[in-house]
Structure formats: C-alpha cells, structure tokens
Design a protein that fits this description.
Pfam families: Fn3-like (PF14310), Glyco_hydro_3 (PF00933), Glyco_hydro_3_C (PF01915). It comes from Methylomonas subterranea. It is an enzyme of class 3 (hydrolase). The protein is α/β, with parallel strands linked by helices and 730 residues long. Helix 3 links the parallel strand 1 and strand 2. It has 20 helices and 26 strands. The longest helix has 19 residues.
Length: 730
C-alpha cells in the first residue's frame, strides 16, 4: 500500500510538471550532452572545469535534462572525488535556479566500480564476475559501486551490460557475463539488486541502465558496431531474456544497441523498442541512445535522408533521450519537428514523463548536495575485501598437471611476458580512461603480478620484460634466466581496449608472444601459463605444453595479488569458465549447441568447456534426485544433490544444474544451465543442495515464436549424474 501511495504521488508530480512545461523545456529534458559542452578548455586538468556561462546556456536556454562523461572528451580521465562533488554540486545548484527546478541526471560508465573517480574500488570486469559463479559477490559489487557513485555526487550508472557474449572476437565481450543466458540473468539481476536495493532513491543507491538493447553483442564479423543477423526466434531464446530479467529486477533505464539487427539500426527499430520492450516486457522507464547514434542514422547508416529525419525516426521508434552528445542539434531539430506536428506532442509528453518519473524515483528533486559523505562510503576496507574475494574467485585454474601448483614459496621463479608487470592489463577499458591504457595513472599501491610475487615469495623472483605491453622482450635473456630458475611463469594476453578500438582480425595471439613461448619451452623448465585479457585468445599450442594454466581475464585492481595467492596456495582457486574457450580461431561453438553441431564429423571440442575450473582439493556430487519423475504441464520439479569435499583442503565449488529437453518441435540444445549455487566446504564436509526447475526453465520459443512448454522427457544433469522426468499433457 505504501509503495502504491508513493507511486501515486510521483504520477501526480509528473502530470503536474508536464502541465507546466513549455515545449522547449520538454525537448530539453530529452537532450543529453557530454560534459565537454559545459567545460572550460582542458577541463580534465582544471580545478574548476565548469564554464558557468556554458552551463547556464545549457540549462536556462536549452533546458538540458542530462549530462554524461568526465572532463573532457576525448581526454577523459578519472577525477578526484572532491572535484566530482564540487562539479556536480554546481550543476545541481544551477538546475535549482531554472524556472521549474528540474534536476539534471548525471550519467557515468561505472561498469566495474566508480571507474572515473580516482582511488575507487575497481572490481573484476563482468566476464570475471561471471567466472565467480557467485551472485552474492555480484550483488555486493553492485552495492559498493552505487555507494561510490553517490559519494562522487553522480546519479546514474550505465551498467550492467546484459548483452550475451557469444562472439569472442567482439571487443566488448568482457563487458558481458559470458555466453550463457541463465548466468547473465542471474549475475546481472544480482548486480541490479545490490545497486538499487528496494528503493533507488536511497542515499546510497542509484539507478542502473541495461545495455545495449538488443543484439549488439553478436556481430557477424566480430567487429564492434557492425551488423548482427538474428532471427526472431533466436532473439527471443538467447538475447532478450537477460534484458527481461533486468527489467524484472527493476532497472529503470535502457541504452540502445549502437549497431543493427537484420538490417534495421537499433535506434530505428520500433518493433524492438516499443512493441517488445514495452508492450511485451513491461518496461516503464526511459530509453537513452548510445553515443551520437541518432545522427548516425543519417551520417553512417543512410537510413535517414537528413539529420532532421534521423531525429524523427528515432523518437517515433521509441528513443526517449538522445546522447547527442557535443551540441544542441537534437534539441533544435526535435523542437522544430514538434512545432510542425511531425512528432506528436503526445510522444514528447510520453518520453518526458518517463524521464521525469525516473528522476523523481531517484530522489533527485530532493537532493540539494551529494547524498552521502565520502568517509565510510568510498574505497572502504570492507569494499576492498569484497573486491579481493571477487578477484580470487574470478581466476580459473584450467590445467594443473601432476599437481605442480601450488608452488612452494621457496621456488625460484622467472616471470616473463607482456602482461607480467602492468595493472592496466588486469582492468581493461573504462578504467581511469576510456581505453584503460594510461598505466601512469593507475594507483601505485596496487600490485602487478610481478610485485605481488615479489611480495609473497620467500625465494628468488626474476623478471625479464618491459615497462609497456608493446615493449620488446629480450628472448635470449629470458631463456638464459629460465635455465637458472625452477619454474617459468609466462604472462601472456591482451593490452587494454574497448569498443571499435578493440577490433581484431583474429583470436590468435600476437606472433611475438608465440615466439617468446616457444623459446621458453625449449629451455626445458616447467612453465606455468598465466593470461590476462578480455577475450579468449588462442593459447592451444602453449597450454598443451605448459604444466599449468591460469586464466585471469580481467580480475581488476586486486588481480595481481589474487593471482599470486593462487600460485602459492594462499587461496584455493574456484573460478569457472563463463564461456567455451576455443581451441582454434575459427572453431567457436557454445556449450549449449544444437545436436547437429556435435554430430558425425562435427564436434564440440573447445580447449576448455563452459563451466570448467579446477581446485586444489576435490569435490564430488552424488545422490541426484527429483521429487517427482512425472509432472503435469505447468508444474515445477524439485532437484536435490549432495556435494562433498573429498580432498584435504577447504575450497569453494560451484554446482551447476543443466536441463535437456529430449525432443522438441524446435531443435533443442544438448543442455542448458538452469541453476547454480556456490558453496564453501571444509575437508570431508558434505552439503545437500536443493533447486527448483520451473515451467519457465522447461520452456522454449516454439514454431510460432511464442514461449511454450511441450510434453515429453527432460534430463537433469549435475556432475556425472543424470535424472529424468516426464512432462504430461493435462
């Protein structure tokens, strides 16, 4: 009842404001500008980066509803928290002097912590969080990020990415939760719960934004912002469900796909933006364009004959707010379109009502200063502890031949490779800067892999490598040193990137890394391969010769310490792969493939399968049972299984529950993840875990492109066991 009363109050406020607003004020609310529009020159280095005259022009004359980004594009970099608080306070105070005192909503890409605030706790990127298979960690990361965003004086976070990562070439793969639908739903929903809580107007909570609706992550050629070809059945089976989960979790904003699906750009797709997102999924918040994407309907896509037509197409398709971002062109064009009636007043009111509603729900109208203090809310000890745990659980032990790991702390170690002594390679893009490659601005108190090994080792640690990723490594020196050490840790992988800058032509590792690896193997010493990077680069030749393989992906600021702790056995690894790690560049098959993909000459033969991950102890699942072997359509099945630590060390185990529909009117995957739970067990300890498989879990998109459950047999698979149940027609 209280919630309904609060909603009624907000709806009355929205109607009241709409009734008072001029057309100019309404169109301004739909306009989002980059900070550079109101900035002094080189604002990233100025103590007071706001040009007051420009800000007043934006808010008094153009009635701008939203500002995004850091000072000052294209030289974005993280700012001190005091500067952020001062900047956002000036914007709040200026907005409070406008006629209707409508606040600005300030958006930022805080995708793995408050990425653009100096000293923030920066977590593993989403692909690493997915590897933890720990929704509790995802929820805590969301809560800690929201606190840091709000302590910075900011309002709105452009996260999480709910695109599915099924195209490993795509340079934003690491921003996703991997290739599986259920994993993305679970991890993304948990993040939203933590970030927003029960009420995202709370002082330490903030609204989230689902990205990038929809199909952006599956470009046919793997390049960023290029076409995807996705039939509607596949769209509904794989790509829409994570967004639906995000809507159900309460995310009030959605950012739109920068590219196109089936020939129609995301910003022009009325079917996706209005009929599906709102009509079917029940989304009631507002949509925001991605960077400059409305004007690109004309300049790039040639869908619109003019910038004016581009604005008309996008707004009528369902775009509520335009990330313009560098001028007032959207404002001027939409104002003219509204005055001529080409965009109806009702559509303007609809969009503005949605924006005002989210601002009211966020508590922005009551906020006259940063809502929480820095002390106790930013870079806290408890946040750092959660981050360390997340980094530890994000790292996947993929191979450990003859139990070479963990290493004795007396081991004489040679460390070499381009990712051995950099923080940037463990964090990736959207870290301090857009591309994340400004190593000189990373915090000096955080440990690279080299520094962590030196700190934690009691033996000799020698490093052969450069100060930059691209610096040539003296291979002869590395080989000579290898002969004088017990083991070589070979740190390979990628430099940092995001978006189109990260496009590559092949998943193969750079030739210089293969050259280094081959020379090191020839030295005859045991080799431990460690990788960092956002994509599964092809490591097959190296991994097959290495005694151990640790896959780091992007474990964040605590990644070096976490990796060293795993190498020395201070931490028992528990990460699992959130994707199928390909064996070859052109052999990309997801785990939930169709039967024909593993039939006759075809095989599912990744280097490491989805869900793979080793431990320094052993776990055994047993006693898989169902509460009923025959159920009626519409009923659920209760699943029970025991998990036991049969080894000699305490450890964490993610228990994964798969389901297979044996026969369907549309071909069904060989298995699909439907539930998981992570537990920590002492040696000899056993737990019984329970799961519920619902009709939704048994459903699929049928011939008529509607979600159905068909009668028939289903297999439940956990570990090495399978149990079968039958769904009977009523």
């Amino acid at each position: 009842m209280a919630a309904q009363q609060a909603n009624d109050v907000i709806e009355n406020q929205v109607r009241d404001l709409l009734g008072q607003m001029t057309l100019e004020e309404k169109v301004g609310q739909m306009t989002q500008i980059d900070f550079s529009v109101v900035s002094v020159e080189n604002g990233q280095d100025a103590d007071n980066p706001i040009d007051r005259a420009k800000l007043e022009d934006a808010l008094f004359n153009h009635h701008v509803g939203s500002i995004l980004n850091t000072p000052t594009t294209p030289n974005n970099k993280a700012q001190p928290i005091a500067k952020w608080r001062n900047m956002t306070q000036v914007i709040r105070e200026t907005a409070a002097k406008t006629r209707l005192k409508i606040p600005v909503i300030y958006g930022i890409d805080a995708i793995h912590g408050a990425t653009y605030t100096q000293g923030a706790t920066l977590f593993p990127q989403a692909i690493g969080m997915a590897a933890t298979f720990n929704t509790e960690l995802s929820e805590k990361a969301g809560a800690i990020t929201a606190r840091a965003v709000k302590a910075s004086g900011l309002d709105w976070n452009f996260a999480p990415v709910m695109d599915i990562g099924r195209q490993p070439l795509w340079p934003r793969l690491w921003e996703t939760y991997g290739e599986d639908v259920h994993l993305a739903e679970a991890m993304g929903s948990a993040y939203i719960r933590g970030h927003q809580g029960e009420d995202f107007s709370a002082a330490d909570k903030a609204p989230t934004c689902l990205k990038h609706y929809v199909g952006y992550s599956y470009p046919l050629n793997g390049k960023d912002r290029t076409p995807a070809w996705i039939g509607e059945r596949a769209l509904r089976e794989y790509f829409l469900p994570p967004f639906q989960a995000g809507v159900l979790a309460g995310a009030p904003t959605v950012m739109i796909n920068s590219a196109e699906v089936d020939g129609l750009p995301g910003h022009a797709n009325y079917h996706y933006l209005t009929e599906i997102l709102r009509g079917e999924m029940g989304f009631t918040g507002f949509t925001v364009s991605d960077w400059e994407d409305i004007i690109r309907l004309h300049t790039r896509d040639k869908l619109a004959a003019s910038p004016r037509e581009a604005v008309k197409i996008a707004v009528l398709a369902g775009v509520d707010m335009s990330m313009v971002p560098f001028d007032y062109s959207f404002y001027d064009l939409l104002l003219d379109l509204a005055k001529t009636g080409e965009v109806p007043q009702s559509r303007i009111d609809e969009a503005v009502g949605r924006i005002l509603r989210v601002k009211l729900q966020s508590g922005l109208f009551e906020r006259r200063e940063p809502s929480i203090p820095v002390a106790g809310n930013f870079a806290t000890a408890d946040g750092q502890a959660v981050n360390r745990q997340a980094a530890e659980e994000a790292i996947v032990l993929a191979k450990n031949a003859n139990g070479i790991l963990p290493l004795s702390k007396q081991t004489r170690i040679l460390l070499t490779g381009p990712t051995a002594n950099l923080l940037s390679v463990m964090n990736g893009g959207w870290t301090i800067t857009w591309q994340g490659d400004a190593e000189q601005w990373y915090p000096q108190d955080k440990l690279t892999l080299l520094k962590a090994l030196q700190q934690k080792s009691a033996g000799k640690v020698t490093y052969v490598g450069g100060q930059r990723y691209s610096e040539e490594i003296n291979i002869e020196q590395a080989v000579a040193q290898a002969r004088q050490h017990d083991v070589v840790i070979l740190a390979l992988g990628e430099n940092t990137y995001t978006e189109t800058v990260g496009n590559i032509d092949s998943l193969e590792l750079p030739a210089v890394q293969l050259q280094l690896a081959r020379a090191i193997f020839a030295a005859g010493k045991p080799v431990i391969l460690v990788t960092f990077g956002g994509r599964p680069r092809i490591i097959t030749e190296i991994a097959e010769q290495a005694q151990a393989v640790l896959l780091g992906f992007l474990p964040g600021m605590e990644g070096g310490a976490a990796m060293a702790d795993i190498l020395f056995g201070n931490v028992n690894p528990s990460g699992r792969l959130p994707l199928s790690y390909p064996r070859a560049a052109n052999d990309v098959t997801p785990y939930d493939h169709k039967p024909m993909e593993a039939f006759e000459a075809n095989q599912y033969r990744p280097l490491y399968p989805f869900g793979h991950g080793l431990s320094y102890t052993q776990f055994e699942t047993s006693g898989l049972t169902l509460n009923n072997n025959s159920i009626a359509l519409g009923d659920s099945v209760e699943v029970s299984v025991k998990v036991k630590n049969t080894g000699k060390l305490a450890g964490k185990e993610a228990v994964l529950v798969y389901l297979h529909d044996l026969v369907g009117s549309v071909t069904r995957p060989v298995k699909q993840l439907k539930a998981f739970k992570k537990v920590e067990l002492q040696p000899g300890e056993q737990q019984t875990l329970s799961f519920t498989l619902t009709p939704e879990d048994m459903s699929f998109i049928g011939v008529d492109k509607r979600r159905i459950v068909e009668p028939g047999e289903f297999d439940v698979m956990v570990g090495a066991e399978t149990a079968r149940f039958n769904v009977v027609a009523n």
